[in-house]
What we know:
heterodimer, A: elongated, B: 229 residues, mainly alpha
Amino acid sequence: xxxxxxxxxxxxxxxxxxxxxxxxxxxxxxxxxxxxxxxxxxxxxxxxxxxxxxxxxxxxxxxxxxxxxxxxxxxxxxxxxxxxxxxxxxxxxxxxxxxxxxxxxxxxxxxxxxxxxxxxxxxxxxxxxxxxxxxxxxxxxxxxxxxxxxxxxxxxxxxxxxxxxxxxxxxxxxxxxxxxxxxxxxxxxxxxxxxxxxxxxxxxxxxxxxxxxxxxxxxxxxxxxxxxxxxxxxxxxxxxxxxxxxxxxxxxxxxxxxxxxxxxxxxxxxxxxxxxxxxxxxx
Amino acid sequence: xxxxxxxxxxxxxxxxxxxxxxxxxxxxxxxxxxxxxxxxxxxxxxxxxxxxxxxxxxxxxxxxxxxxxxxxxxxxxxxxxxxxxxxxxxxxxxxxxxxxxxxxxxxxxxxxxxxxxxxxxxxxxxxxxxxxxxxxxxxxxxxxxxxxxxxxxxxxxxxxxxxxxxxxxxxxxxxxxxxxxxxxxxxxxxxxxxxxxxxxxxxxxxxxxxxxxxxxxxxxxxxxxxxxx
Lengths: 283, 229
């Protein structure tokens, strides 16, 4: 049984696992495997909702609430959703209840500059910037955006922007999308936008926080949810703009498979040692 | 007098705000009163927005004060970290104020706080990589922990492992090549057993919030005043 113990010792070394993990992430990015992405029913449902319910000229509010650490997972979702909404002829008002959202929006806009070509700021889209106050700010925005803030992120008076003359309160929007790395923000919008005004909500969340906000989707307080990198890749395929979401899927697959392999081998060693010890072998 | 100013007046303000907020949200007498309630409710929300904005300034000053004290009182072990924090805080505030000044002095240039070149450079090249690296390092710990923790020692551990494997395979494209059923099975796990587990937690948190509100209303909750009961 010394063989199993030696193997366990080798696999248990953090250096080996970390090195293999690093390679399993980097290599597929440098040399993509091109594994086809199967589209889940949940992502199809989100796509179908927008296709069915939003018409040209519709108004959508998007909450941009993620820091740069979560950018890899959430920005591809935001880009794919924006592409879909612009293709449908929707007008978009972006806002951020977190200070980091301002830079996240700026990076998103530079990454998806092609989407904004031909779109006029103030008429087709507006960015309100950071609005301090958390849930209280969310409640205030739902009642009146112009009553809460008077200028956008760039110092333009909201009254001077054509799009902001069309919208002011929660019920003026056909859909509200929350792209967030924090759990609380989803609750804010459920409590302050959906419950009192019945505005449809759509979530785009990190994989790690998606389970905790799943009850809102189950209770129909949100029309659907896009979860992490996988949903971003699927949505990119659906809207026909392949980007960072699909490019990262091979790396996600190989790294996950590596972890699965380690778990299986670890269990095989554990049970091998346990069986042999019962038979009277060395421990 | 001190007790009244430091304890009773803040508690009285909180009590009045709670009663007003609940009344504005739930009470309906007639349309006219409802409209005036909505206006007053909006004013309360706006106050919260304004107070939070000022709280950010107070927070910044407090961080500065805390690290200045630490720099003076503690030895060389902590001093470098406090010095870096103070240095970056001052530099970022300086460039942010410069951007804010330009947004009014030269609006046509389109420069604001976050688009001020030096502020943006520091954010994107110092803060952003550090933030992303901190988050990315988690993957190594998770991988190491998964290898050590997922041991099938009993039937419950086996159930946990099988569930985890289904979700892992469902989240990867390779999973679909192995068996197409992983994806719908992952969705079922997320929407049915996961929701069943998380819904009581959500409801419990809601009930906890109500109890906290009642404790604030009856002056039993004093931790927000910086005191223990």
